[in-house]
Write a structure and sequence with these properties.
homodimer; about 210 residues; Tetracycline Repressor, domain 2; DNA-binding
DNA sequence: CACTCATTCAAACGTTTGTTTTAAATGGGG
DNA sequence: CCCCATTTAAAACAAACGTTTGAATGAGTG
């Protein structure tokens, strides 16, 4: 097995097991044995378990955020002179996110993993995630601010948090909805995006006291 | 130290440490040493670590859900003949939740803990939480359905999930917002509720395709 | 006082964890 | 062909984990 194959096999299995059982509860022995590689390979290639989770997250989050930034910059340029609509900004952020499940076979695993990152008690994981989200969050905030010029800064801040909360919960629900009430119909990523964008847009545009 | 004191001291410390570091990463030794009790006391009084987290959650979640159900039943009765407004239903659910921080000194710890429950990778914790949420979620769904009679069942289902996601993220943000962008102003529970209710109401009432 | 029994205690149990260290085998690129 | 990064197997490491045990404690009761 070549170096490239070994590293990728570890990343694939780790992504799957981290998504299923969480970072803390997944042992390196479970990962390496399922990947069919030696236990020492993780420390050899990634330095530590922390290096592994970092690599697992960044392997997919960097391209995803690149895609989100492209979409955001596109709608910002297209609306350079005209008014920028909130639903356009929100769609630019949400669609690359949810569509990620269909870009890769392991897309659902990754969305589960990263959708849990903000709620992760382990500071290690949270810091890796937040560090990678800094830029796109700043741009997102500016874009939303431009589309909602009458919204006070701190109201915008909290509504952006509500948006992030709703979206990250939805990302976790794609693989398996934890609260499945009877009659909860599964949705593909596209129709889920079509459902959540109007919800978030209305919330962002809601009147405030 | 009486039995009552021992059990409560363990519950208080466990609530705090579980909120800070999560269920898996918090050891019984850390809990018992901080509580000033013997290590074996946990297994003696709660049977197991799982029994402890169950007791920690239910000690506060049962009264909280009782309060939420009271509010929901109240608004359902008051609007028995007239039309039921979505913002009234949402406020009946959200306000007891966020106000919980001011009912008890450890309210923020508990909200952090339970706000993370749905994202918890450990199936044990998730099942305890979901089991305790079943009834109030059913009532909440019925109430929202009555206030939004034109909303298809599966759209209501997903929007309720968006609501839960936004609220649970907010619950975790009360103690410490993980994504703190510059200019993020802290809010007390009351003004946070006043911020999130219009957001969620507009989202629930948004037009759908 | 003696007895009871729930509670507390120190100590140890067996298991699992991440990590490191051996040494030998492997195999692709210069 | 040979070098060297890589892979492997095996073992050991110290540390931390949840749980169990059996003796000590001590307040309440007859």
């Amino acid at each position: 097995m070549t170096q490239h194959e070994t590293k990728n096999k570890i990343l694939d299995v780790a992504e799957k097991l981290f998504a299923e059982a969480g970072y803390k509860a997944t042992s390196l022995r479970a990962i390496t044995s399922m990947a069919g590689v030696n236990l020492a390979a993780v420390n050899y290639h990634f330095g530590s378990k922390e290096g592994l989770i970092s690599a697992v997250i960044e392997r997919r989050l960097v391209p995803l955020n690149k895609s989100r930034l492209e979409q955001l910059h596109r709608v910002l340029v297209e609306a350079a002179d005209q008014s920028l609509q909130a639903n356009v900004v929100i769609r630019a952020f949400v669609e690359p996110t949810l569509m990620f499940t269909e870009t890769l076979p392991s897309g659902k695993n990754f969305l589960t993993l990263v959708g849990r990152a903000l709620a992760e008690p382990d500071e290690t994981v949270r810091k890796i995630f937040i560090h990678n989200m800094q830029e796109v969050m700043t741009v997102m905030r500016e874009a939303l601010g431009r589309s909602l010029p009458d919204l006070p800064s701190d109201v915008l801040f909290w509504r952006l948090n509500f948006l992030i909360g709703a979206l990250s919960h939805t990302m976790r629900c794609i693989e398996k909805c934890p609260m499945a009430l009877e009659g909860g119909v599964a949705r593909d990523a596209a129709s889920l995006a079509a459902l959540i964008v109007p919800f978030l847009t209305a919330g962002m545009e809601a009147p405030h006291a």
